[in-house]
Amino acid sequence: MTQIKKYITVINSLAVALLLSEAVAAQQVSPAVDKVAAQYFASVGDKALIFTGQEPQPYTRIDERESSDAKRAYHPFYVSPAYANGSAVFNNVVYNDIALRYDLLRDELTVRDPRQVSILLEPAKVQEATVNGARLIAYDADEWQGIPACNYLIMMYDGKYPVVKKIMLAYHSDVSTHGVDAYYMVSERLYIRRDGYCYPAGNKRALLRCFPDRRKEINTFIKQQKLRFGTGYDGCRFAAPVVKLRRCDG
Question: Is this prediction's pTM over 0.90?
Answer without folding.
Answer: no
